[in-house]
Design goal:
elongated; 5-stranded antiparallel beta sheet; disordered N terminus; single chain; about 200 residues
Length: about 200
């Protein structure tokens, strides 16, 4: 297929047609679907899975699932007589415990961000049926909003903040270190994938 790219520079625009068939690779590592591209998607309240969609319910305090076959939505909890209002419920996310609009799906697991005691966001791995949760690692400072974005690839998650640190420090015209963190989903090891320093720097 052909991808049309439009560049806008100095009030002028230029269109370039790219033949994507020329980009096909015989490298199995390239063609293998081992990533979930969520780059630069704010307000991420839902995510696509193999047979439906997962999403955060009203006020982002519960996990829900929409089945593409039955066309029905349901809470991610199969416990009988569950009131879905406490931590014993598989779908319950608490009242402000998890950051809103931070739900992701990768390699048969859900991932969400919750507030850590240090002020950093904690990456939580959740099973598809909601029955198990595991804290993977701490990431970037969280401001009780969706300031952190995630992108998954090859068993790793890449995290960056699209909000300047001025939101927390209220200092303007100051140099900051903007960075992208890389965390291994199996070990929880966190490394810096990229960093740069600049005036009010932000990714």
């Amino acid at each position: 297929f052909v991808l049309l790219v439009i560049f806008i520079t100095n009030n002028s625009q230029k269109e370039i047609a790219l033949n994507m068939s020329d980009w096909n690779s015989t490298d199995s590592n390239v063609n293998e679907i081992n990533y979930q591209n969520y780059w630069a998607t704010t307000n991420h309240n839902f995510c696509k899975a193999e047979n439906g969609y997962f999403f955060m319910g009203e006020r982002c305090n519960s996990l829900c699932y929409w089945d593409s076959k039955s066309k029905k939505a349901m809470l991610l909890c199969g416990k009988p007589d569950c009131l879905h209002d406490n931590d014993k419920c598989n779908a319950y996310l608490g009242k402000g415990d998890y950051l809103p609009f931070t739900l992701y799906y990768y390699d048969h697991f859900l991932y969400a961000l919750k507030m850590g005691s240090s002020g950093n966001a904690v990456l939580v791995q959740i099973s598809e049926d909601g029955t198990s949760r595991k804290e993977i690692c701490e990431l970037l400072p969280a401001y009780r909003s969706n300031n952190i974005d995630l992108s998954f690839h090859d068993g790793k998650v890449y995290a960056y903040s699209h909000v300047m640190e001025t939101r927390a420090s209220e200092k303007t015209n100051t140099e900051y270190d903007a960075l992208i963190l890389c965390a291994d989903l199996s070990t929880g090891k966190v490394e810096t994938a990229h960093t740069y320093r600049g005036l009010n720097a932000v990714i």
